[in-house]
Design brief:
Blueprint (H helix, E strand, L loop, with lengths): L1 H18 L4 H25 L6 H30 L12 H30 L5 E3 L2 E3 L7 H36 L10
Antiparallel strand pairs: 1-2
């Protein structure tokens, strides 16, 4: 009898979750962003352990830059989709307003960093004053070297990476809290 009751309850939760899911494109863009960000952090961490002049380090840096541009493009696509076409399920009724405000602030912070990080990375590269590869293009040196301005972009990029990691941790931790403790279906709304 208990098993049947749990099964019926589980089915009811699943049905409710299905009706409050994000649309497929929003879900796809979310997980594509996750993969790109994982690639960004992985490439940065792997490169730190290498001789920066080695061919492997150069290839990893080119990959990092390419993923940065792709992250920026995907971020723009996400924002455009979200503003114009996305199905955005409401927060659960049981979720306190303060928690909703924190979730929104975290989300907006993530969007800001998705746009700012590639720009600070590009500033770092431009003020180095050397040619560089981006996607499939060889870009000539566009600016004269300026170590002082470049160091500001380096600091901003490093600070942004730490902030992004903190916000991602908060975002993922909250999703797991909703799944494992509250069991309110919030995590399932974004699962493929």
């Amino acid at each position: 009898m208990t098993y049947e009751l749990e099964s019926a309850e589980t089915q009811a939760v699943k049905a409710a979750v299905e009706s409050r899911r994000f649309d497929r494109i929003s879900i796809g863009l979310h997980w594509l962003t996750v993969l790109l960000i994982l690639g960004q952090f992985t490439s940065a961490w792997v490169r730190k352990g290498l001789d920066h002049d080695s061919s492997l380090a150069v290839a990893i840096l080119e990959t990092h830059r390419t993923m940065g541009v792709l992250t920026w493009i995907v971020g723009l696509a996400r924002l455009a989709w979200r503003q114009n076409f996305a199905d955005l399920p409401p927060f659960p009724q049981s979720m306190p307003k303060l928690q909703q405000s924190i979730a929104k602030a975290n989300e907006y912070g993530l969007y800001v960093l998705l746009f700012v990080q590639p720009i600070t990375g590009l500033g770092n590269v431009l003020f180095r004053g050397h040619p560089f590869e981006l996607l499939v293009w060889q870009v000539p040196a566009l600016l004269e070297p300026n170590p002082a301005i470049r160091s500001l972009f380096v600091l901003a990029h490093e600070f942004g990476a730490r902030a992004l990691l903190a916000l991602i941790g908060l975002h993922a931790g909250a999703a797991l809290f909703h799944r494992l403790v509250l069991r309110d279906g919030v995590l399932q709304r974004m699962l493929p």
